[in-house]
Amino acid sequence: MGAFLVIATTAMAVLFLGGVNARMFFLIAAMALGAFALIIAFDDLRRTRILAYLDPWNPAYAQGKAYQLTHSLIAFGRGEIFGVGLGGSVEKLHWLPEAHTDFLLAVIGEEFGFIGVMVVLGLLTWLMLRCIRVAARSTNPFASLVAFGLVSMIFVHVLINVGMTVGVMPITGIPLPFFSYGSTSLLVNLSAIGILLNVSRQAA
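Predicted structure:
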C-alpha cells in the first residue's frame, strides 16, 4: 500500500507538471482514490490498520495494530524539547518495532528532542528546495520533468514517514530518505540525487 501511494502520487505530480488535460488529470485522480478506497474496504487487515490509526490508545488496538504508533508517540513524548541524549533511547531497545528503519525519526525525537527533529526536517527541506531549483533551471523539458518526478518521490517518502511516525497518517512501510537503515532505499535515493546532479550540470 505504501509503495502504491508513493508511485501514484509521483506519477500524478509528473502528469500535473507535464500539462496533462485537466479533465483527464482529475479522472485519473478519482480512479486512484477509488482504487485506494476499495483496497481498504475489502481488506480486513488494512481496514483494521485505519481504525487503529484513528484511535491508537483504544485497548483493542494499543497492543495490536496501533502498537508501533503508540510507542512512537511515547518516544517523541520522552524526548520533549532537547531529548534524553545520544544513545539514551529506551524505545529502540525492542519496544518500538523497526526503530532503525520506518520509525527512525521517533528515535531521533527521543534522543535529540524537538530540536533534533527540526534539524533533520530542515536538512531534508533544504535538499528538496535545491532539487526543485535544479528542476526549474533545466532548459530540457524531459530532464525537467524527470527531475521534478524524482523530487516528488523523495518528498512523498518524507511526508509519509513523518506523518506516520507522529500519528497524522496511517502506518505504512516507508523509510525516511537518507536516514533509515536499508541498502535498497539508500541506493535508489542516491541514484536520484545522481540524476539530479547530472541535470544540474547540463543546465549550467
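Summary: Helices lie at 2-17, 22-41, 44-54, 59-62, 67-79, 104-137, 141-166, 183-203.
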